[in-house]
Design brief:
By secondary structure, this protein is of the alpha+beta class. The chain folds into three domains: 177 residues, Reverse transcriptase/Diguanylate cyclase domain (Alpha-Beta Plaits); 83 residues, no CATH class; 188 residues, 2-Layer Sandwich (Nucleotidyltransferase, domain 5). The strands form six sheets. A five-stranded mixed sheet has the order 16-15-14-17-18. A four-stranded antiparallel sheet has the order 6-7-3-8. β9 and β10 form a beta hairpin. The N and C termini lie far apart (58 Å). The relative contact order is 0.08.
Length: 493
């Protein structure tokens, strides 16, 4: 097939994955040809290092794959017919699974030479196959030196670079330009999707809202673009799990995928947020953490057990909360994906942070809160925003984010070594219902102002623990309950 280029020419793409059972790609081990790609997140880190008013540039290879010849004994695998005639491709071709990995090796060698010769900081460059994007502070001449060196090295090595007549493909040092498909303005410090790309994506998202099923390849297209944009949109990571699941529904391009209500809600979220943020949203800091004055809370959860009382606990020197597990969790009831609820530790450990923002609503309001969690999987799911394998974990991280937003609180989850501090040991005691040990540790550490009774827990949490199921509205239910006691953003009571 062919794909049109902006200059009016077409790129021939050969599908070496067909026909099934006889395809060239079936005989290639893709693991032998790894490709290290860049990403929006990596580029955001580069911009943060360069600072506001930074200069950017982009160098693009022209006919990138044509720079690498295929050894003669393999060229017989690259015959194709076009216009009634037979042709043999002698260079790397689109459609072959090894092409990207082979070209990437060459591109990285060339970039290494440029960086070393120009004495440019390696961590200020992002290389995405044939695109090499770089940035530098506005009062530095390092970027001009890097850009000139790239041109010089390309001439000496015989690398053909894209001309600078199309700024979307390549441009010299400037404070505005398109990097990895997104336009950045370092003076206004905003990002935007190019108008044509934005309209196409909005049209695709709106089409999802009007039908009950669609072809799989349309979801592939939308999700691929949204994954790329996700780091730029506030709370975007919590609003993509239904789209991700639909993305892997089938391997057939034309398979009709049913669109659930969760899929449509998230499609509407992106349809709304892209119109709101593109062109006006600030360039975010992907590594922005909590301020030094953030309040620390320690949580822990125990697995379900037949004997003894277990649950989830959270505590600070002046506040604590506890929720016991329901009989269904303790007795090994089955959850989603036919897994025992009492052994789904990544999900159970997230109940503690939910108690922090919900039971401690007065204490967390308008404050930055750092929650220490004794489970690396739970922290990873929070950072990612969802779990592809644990629907209950997705439910809980979305609920935590919703409640925190309703209270105007900044929240982050951090991994802690088990029982490494008195408060971590106290949280561990709460999870095992060892209240005597909890009090003993507290008094030994001088926490004498702890209340006798645990904090009140909103009814929706208790109800959910009785029968844990995926629920996108758990956070909304908790906020509605909190609105009966206090003011909550976005909720009228």
């Amino acid at each position: 097939m062919t794909r049109p280029k902006p200059n009016g020419s077409v790129r021939i793409i050969l599908n070496l994955s067909a026909p099934l059972g006889m395809a060239v790609n079936e005989g290639i081990d893709n693991n032998q040809f790894p490709t290290s790609m860049s990403s929006t997140t990596k580029w955001l880190r580069v911009l943060r290092r360069a600072g506001k008013h930074a200069k950017m540039c982009k160098v693009d290879w022209s006919d990138a794959y044509k720079h690498v010849a295929v050894r003669s004994e393999d060229t017989d695998l690259q015959w194709f017919q076009w216009g009634g005639q037979a042709f043999k491709e002698l260079c790397l071709i689109f459609g072959c699974v090894s092409s990207a990995g082979i070209f990437d090796r060459l591109a990285k060698i060339v970039l290494f030479i440029v960086v070393q010769k120009s004495r440019f900081r390696e961590d200020m460059v992002c290389q995405h196959l044939d695109d090499c994007c770089a940035a530098a502070p506005f009062d530095s001449d390092a970027l001009e030196r890097y850009d000139a060196t790239f041109t010089e090295v390309a001439i000496n090595l015989g690398v053909k670079l894209a001309p600078r007549d199309d700024p979307e493909k390549s441009f010299g040092p400037a404070q505005s330009g398109i990097i990895l498909g997104i336009r950045y303005d370092t003076v206004a410090w905003t990002w935007a999707l190019p108008e044509e790309k934005l309209f196409r994506l909005l049209h695709l998202l709106r089409s999802f809202l009007q039908v009950d099923q669609c072809q799989q390849h349309l979801i592939w297209t939308a999700v691929g673009k949204l994954q790329h944009i996700k780091p730029l949109v506030p709370t975007g990571r919590f609003c993509i799990d239904h789209l991700i699941r639909a993305n892997s529904f089938s391997l057939e391009r034309t398979f009709m995928v049913p669109l659930c209500s969760g899929f449509k809600r998230q499609a509407w979220f992106w349809f709304s947020m892209l119109r709101l943020c593109s062109g006006s949203g600030p360039i975010p800091d992907p590594d922005l953490g909590l301020p030094p004055w953030a309040i620390d809370v320690f949580t822990d959860s125990a697995g379900g057990a037949w004997e003894g009382l277990k649950g989830a606990g959270a505590c600070t020197p002046t506040w604590w909360a506890f929720s016991p597990w329901s009989a269904k969790i303790n007795r090994g009831g089955m959850g989603p994906s036919n897994r025992k609820l009492g052994r789904m530790m990544s999900a159970l450990e997230l109940v503690g942070p939910l108690l922090v923002v919900a039971a401690g609503y007065q204490w967390c309001r308008n404050k930055p809160v750092r929650i220490w969690v004794d489970n690396a999987g739970s922290v990873f799911i929070w950072k990612k925003g969802y779990s592809s394998s644990c629907l209950l974990s997705s439910t809980l991280v979305k609920a935590i984010a919703s409640v925190a937003a309703g209270l105007g609180s900044q929240v982050d989850l951090v991994k802690i070594t088990r029982c490494s501090t008195p408060l971590a040991d106290m949280a561990d005691a709460l999870s095992k219902c060892a209240f005597s040990r909890f009090r003993e540790i507290a008094f030994g550490a001088g926490y004498t102002t702890l209340p006798l009774e645990p904090a009140w827990i909103p009814a929706p949490i208790t109800a959910w623990l009785l029968d844990p199921v995926p629920d996108d509205f758990l956070g909304d239910k908790i906020l509605n309950e909190l609105a009966k006691r206090t003011l909550v953003l976005g909720v009228n009571c």
